[in-house]
Amino acid sequence: MNLMTERSLEKAVGDKMNAVASTNKMKGDKVSVFYGAKQALFDVDLDIPEKMVTALIGPSGCGKSTFLRSLNRMNDTIEGCRVTGQITLDGEDIYDPKIDVVELRARVGMVFQKPNPFPKSIYENVAYGPRIHGLAKSRHELDEIVESSLRRASLFEEVKDRLHDAGTGLSGGQQQRLCIARAIAVSPEVILMDEPCSALDPIATAKVEELIDELRQNYTIVIVTHSMQQAARVSQKTAMFHLGNLVEVGETEMMFTTPKEKRTQDYITGRFG
Amino acid sequence: MTDATFNSNVAAVGRPVRRDIGIKRRYAAERRFRFYGVAAIAVGIFFLFALLFSVISNGYTAFWQTTIELPVKLDEKLIDPSNQRATNPNVLLTANYPLLVRNALAEKLGVSTTDRPAMRDLSKFVSDGVRNQLREMVVANPSLIGTTQTIPVLAGADIDSAFKGQINLDVDEANRKVSNRQVAWMKELADEGVMRQKFNTGLFTYGASSRPETAGLGVALVGSLYMMLIVLVLSLPIGVAASIYLEEYAKKSRLTDIIEVNINNLAAVPSIVFGLLGLAVFINLVGLPRSASLVGGLVLTLMTLPTVIIATRAALRAVPPSIRSAALGIGASKTQMVFHHVLPLAAPGILTGTIIGLAQALGETAPLLLIGMVAFVVGYPTTPMDPATALPVQIYMWANEAERAFVERTSGAIIVLLLFLAVMNIAAIILRRRFERRW
Description:
heterodimer, A: alpha/beta, 10 strands, 25% strand, B: mainly alpha, MetI-like fold, 3 domains, three-stranded antiparallel sheet, phosphate transmembrane transporter activity (chain B), Phosphate_PstA (chain B), transport (chain B)
């Protein structure tokens, strides 16, 4: 396995220590997802550790995005989609009828595959979330939230002179960081990322990965990725999906060095997928 | 198999031999198709120009009206011979005002007031509309009686047509509508500069009249304005609300499928059927007054709704799903998503659809015939409950008239209607350009 550099190996070992101490932020228990009559996910048990990056990998159509989307109930918007089993956030069942899905999505934010800023100004993009959730009492407070969110998304320095220009006028990588800033602005606990770098060039990808690594200090992150290297670089825990089943889950370092399952080994060495 | 063919087969392994698939034929087909396209567009443009040419060449004269500046003596002996206007105001209403004008004209042209045939020709020389014109003047200001005022009076319809050169003067006098004597007067007055063509403001202010020179689009314009306001106020909110519900909230089911199919079908229902529906429901059942622009507006609303709904749904559907996901992903509720993000992005499309629906309604005639808007309405409707006509209905009514002056007014009214439609369509384009956002 040549994927891991010495440095990241050391880091991963350190993370392993963290992982032991960490508690689980979200828990999936026998999660199955159906699109109409077709079952897309089979009895997945997966825990998401707090303040760590969990990577979901696997070939296309394996159900990793489906699992991700069921963590903040974005699947609800798809007609005919049904989720069984239990997913908890801090021990609370998120599919409980008493749970307000709007509040859930404020706690579990999402960044999408394709950068999708609103066709509004950069400022408005970030300010929208705090505004609808009533997070700022004054204009001044809102300005502060916008600035700190953009700073945390390492975008502020690049856009501080044109906060009121259209968000859609930024480059692809900047747009994606804007989307991350937008997600951060509502102070979520968990951030879901659905292949956030697949539409970006390597330089923009590096920036976003660096950002993910920083965000891990404050947020629990779940990332779906097609890139083995990316999973190895940014995550502490990796889950491998195949054909709707959770094949193997473990610490990233273990997964990439000594996978237990043959399918995992074949996939990460590029023999299929 | 010879060596040569063998070698060429070897070559074919690297680069397969291409079959002749008729490149020339393909290019020819492409050229042919382009020609058909250009021809189709040329035919369309030809007919458009033919239409515009015929309407404008027939109609532009309707915007001009022959008037005669005449010093009219408001003779007390003729208006109020027994001086009782202080006690009986009706005297001023019933006075013979055309006689005053006739006498003034006779004096000007040196015709003896006892020459009866000449006086008859003279009375046709000016429009009978002067009766109203002078009456209003005198009633508004009775102190004018006894003075001489220079008043622009309208020429009679036939004189107007002759003055515009629309009546062939080579025809034998017995067979034409203007006599030689009138033609001579016309020349005399024109040379003096008293008789000339002025912009026809009456076309836009007068109501219905059997005299073409005092017939105008005033009532029709007001009626059409009322109806457009009613259609806009009703069809935009109802249509947008229905579309948003169907597109964003309703779960797909057999019922929504049926509704969808029926909305599409309603858009294709002949408009006269909506007229019958309006007659049965709004007039017979609800008991709203006939000929009222309120009923017209309601009927046109029914007709416009499917157009607005179809356009709005298409506009909503064109908003990319990524915007919806983005809004939901940061915890916006569905309603917030729709009103903060989807609707603003769909607004240009909705506005365009609505304006095009309105333009369609503005030009609609058939349903209005059935609810009694083909009416002879002289006075302006003060509310939408009063009888009124509409622009296309006025065109329809004038087209049934035989007089030359009505023919030009029919085309003139068509020009006015087309101008309104053009303005609305240009507004639709400008709104779409201005508010369109890219993502």
